[in-house]
Amino acid sequence: MKRLMIGLVALAMIATACGGDDDGGGTSLLDTVIERDEVICGGNETLPGFGVVDDAGNFSGFDIDFCRVVAAGVLGDSSKVRFVPLTAEARFTALQSGEIDLLIRNTTWTATRDGQEGANFLFTTFYDGQGLMVPASTGFTTLEDLADANICVLTGTTTELNLTAVFNARGIPFNPVQFEDNTQLRPAYEAGQCNAWTSDASQLAAFKATIEGEGGDEQFIMAEIISKEPLGPVVADGDTAWAQAVEWSVMATVQAWEFGLDSGSIGSYSGTSPNILNFIGDGGFNPTLGLPSDFAVQVVSQVGNYEEIYNRNIIPIGLQLTGSPNDLWTNGGLMYVPPYR
Amino acid sequence: MSQTTLEPPPDVESEQIAWYRNVETLRIVGQVAAVVLVVGLLFWLFNNLLTNLNRLNINTDFGFLSRPTNFQISFDEGFDPRSSVWQMVLVGIKNTFLAGIVGIIIASIVGLVIGIARLSSNWLVSRLATIYVEAFRNIPPLVIIIFFGFAIFTFGPFPVLEEATQISWFGSDNTALVLSNRVWGVPSLIAEDNVGIFWAIFVFAIVAAVGVAIYRTRLSDRTGVLHHRVRWALGTFAIIALAGHFIVGGAFSASWPVVSENGRRIDNGFVLNFGYISTTVALGLYTASHVAEIIRGSILAVPKGQSEAANAIALRAFQRYRYIVLPQALRIALPPTINQYLNLIKNTSLGIAVSYAEITLLTKTSIGNGRPAPQSIAVLMAVYLLFSLTISFLLNIYNRRIQLVER
Question: What CATH number has the domain bearing residue A264?
Fold first, then answer.
């Protein structure tokens, strides 16, 4: 009985963890964030290009920059953000419990997550797809080459489900080896404990660059992409004001790119385009999104437009922007935002 | 000081002592208050959980248990991704049990040997035992597991499976052992068609062995000869079981591990994966250091006169331990050792660090793939509770049986 009690108490602990703000309903997280003067952003710390932490404890990466974008948009200062590194399985619990305001951790938008996890997926910042990487020396080029293979995968990710679905549909037997994070997975892959590594193609490109850069074996990423992985910021369900503030802050980077404004030029815009003048808040245009009227200027001048953020983080890991789905819609890509007027 | 001054007559007591000073009343009030507090706290927390989950539109039912998992489990070929989450939980329980039980066996044997060695009069032996205990006892089990996973397998001496080391069975062509940095293959027995008859003979062998053991005990009681009942019982069992095996014409045949042609899997035999080996051996050796200390303390707790008496009747050192010291020491050692066994079972959850598919890893995988976390964790806790209660229940029965009858 005593042990049962302990079990119940432990369950109850989870209950309290989930009970961050009991009053709910009334106040928006937007007010809480402004009052706190800091955005708490859940991110990755082990993924080159998207979220890494250096020896001095500084975070950098594509996702991390979008956390800064939100801080700049909502609070006017891109440095007012605190990063919480999260594992793949812990991320939604952290979001539900209110431990973080915002989750930008290469998280794929799926129906189950949107529904069951109480998560609200916003503007997709990166269109990715799942690929497979093998050591180049193996000469494998197709999924069929991987029959009976050990395939390294991060546990609790959509890649795990895609892998199972695609290989089963094609009748290719395989054995998944589930790892908790990339710091464990990478040495196992390099030691040959797995024949292949599956993940989002962007991640594989990042690790291919790192492994080869550090003098490891040459790697090959298979041409076949086996899934759609739209990645973007996520907030908790049921808080429209906060969701809108985050979404428009993020979309401002794409809008600025489309207008041809970058971190250097947006502050000194002297043209007469009414759309751009609205966008930079000139003349006091404010669509009452809960954001300061000059939020776009803050976002772009402090962090940069989408292209700058991409060039800073993703180009170094070897993924080109031009011609990819992440290019601007006017260039044939998928980056398209609603008009700001 | 006489007794009468301290204890007033009963009728006076009830009239004179106010309720708030009456120990009897206070005891009841205290108990009730504690219960109300605990139940109230639990209710509040649980209510909090439900309210918040409802507010966030998150399901609170357990229907997810019957829906398919949609993922495959490491090194478990039989697991179909269409199986329900329930079946995943069962696989997790099986893997946790396999790691736990083998870990317990390793911990018991190594712990007993090291515990005795620590008391050895041989300087070198006792020092080595001390080093062992201090080394393992003072390192967190997670670190030891990661060390085994990385040092033995990932960065260790074993080749990749395609070039696995194959060790033959004493001169024959059969491979007895396949070693790689991913999986190890060992021979196993596979049942033939006529195994049913064999199991019947097997049961008969057990019954016969128990009968012989009882007979030897009675004989010993009657005549005073040493009973050697374990030896007799095992012998009887082995002879009948082996005879049964041959009478039915080979109920089992050996299955030798073979690396498949593409070098990616081991066919036949019994396959152990690196996560399992790391978890089991690391936890076994770690827990052994604690068990060794318990054994050492228990041996020291046996009165010195017992050993001296054994020496006086000229028993050899082995006999002294086997018949005099250990039976008394193990009686003392059992309760704290049960505790260590429970710890070992719970520590198998650290197998996640070397991607061993035990119940915690599977639960986390399942949560990451969209199953509700509170319910999944509740199931996980129930599983560990079940393990702990079962083990302590069984061992407590055993403990009560071997306990000295005291008056």
Answer: 3.40.190.10
Is the reported ipTM for this assembly greater than 0.95? no
Q: Are strands A59-60 and A51-53 parallel, antiparallel or unpaired?
A: antiparallel
CATH number of B85-158+274-402, picked from 3.40.50.720, 1.20.1560.10, 1.10.3720.10, 3.40.50.2000: 1.10.3720.10
Q: List, in sequence order, the alpha helices (H) in B226-273.
A: 229-247
- Nearest residue of A to residue B375, measured between CA atoms: A11
Residue A5 included in any domain: no
Distance CA A95, CA B52 (A): 13
Residue A291, number of CB atoms within 10 A of its CB: 24
Cα B369 to Cα B362: distance, rounded to the nearest angstrom = 10
**B91 at A interface, C-beta within 8 A:** no
Q: Residue A8's closest chain B neighbor by CA?
A: B42
Other residues' Cβ atoms within 10 Å of the Cβ of residue A11:
18
Q: Which residues of B touch A198 (CB under 8 A)?
A: none
Structure tokens at B43: 């209710």
Q: Provide the residue ranges of all domains of chain B, joining segments of one domain with +.
A: 3-55, 85-158+274-402
Contact A116 B372 (CB under 8 A): yes
Return per-residue pLDDT of chain B as tens, 407 residues: 444 455 555 555 556 778 788 888 888 888 999 999 999 999 998 888 888 777 776 777 888 899 888 888 888 887 888 889 999 999 999 999 999 999 999 999 999 999 999 998 899 999 999 999 999 999 999 999 999 998 888 888 888 888 888 888 777 777 888 888 888 888 888 877 777 788 888 888 899 999 998 998 888 888 888 778 888 889 998 988 888 877 777 777 788 888 887 778 888 888 899 999 999 999 999 999 999 999 999 999 999 999 899 999 999 988 898 889 988 898 889 889 999 999 999 999 999 889 899 999 999 888 888 788 888 999 999 999 999 899 888 888 888 887 776 65
State whether the Cα torsion A191-A195-A198-A204 is positive or negative: positive
Contacting residues for B378 by C-beta, under 8 A, at least 6 apart: A11
A7 burial level (CB within 10 Å; 0-12, 13-18, 19+):
middle
Question: Measured between alpha carbons, how far is A244 from A303 in angstroms, rounded to an integer?
Answer: 19
Q: Is B296 helix (H, G, I), strand (E, B) or coil?
A: helix
Residues 6+ apart with CB under 8 A from B114: B129, B132, B133, B288, B289, B292, B295
Count Cα neighbours of A77 within 13 Å in the Cβ-side half-sphere: 9
Q: Which residues of B touch A178 (CB under 8 A)?
A: 74, 355, 357, 361, 365
Nearest to B387 by CA among B351, B343, B350: B343
Amino acid at A22: D
* Residue at A263 is within a domain: yes
Q: Do B42 and A148 touch (CB under 8 A)?
A: no
Residue A244 lies in a domain: yes
Q: What total of structural domains would you count in chain A?
A: 2
Residue A179 has its nearest CB partner, among B48, B262, B355, at B355
Among candidates A22, A192, A236 on the partner chain, residue whose Cβ is nearest the Cβ of B48: A22
**Helix, strand or coil, per DSSP, at residue A175:** strand
Alpha-carbon span B363 to A325, nearest angstrom: 35
Question: A43 with A164, same domain?
Answer: no
Distance from CA of B361 to the nearest CA of A (A): 8
Taking CA–CA distances from B378, the nearest residue in chain A reads: A11
Domain of A239 in residue numbering reads as: 28-129+231-341
CB A234 within 8 A of CB A107: yes
Identify the three-state secondary structure at position B207.
helix
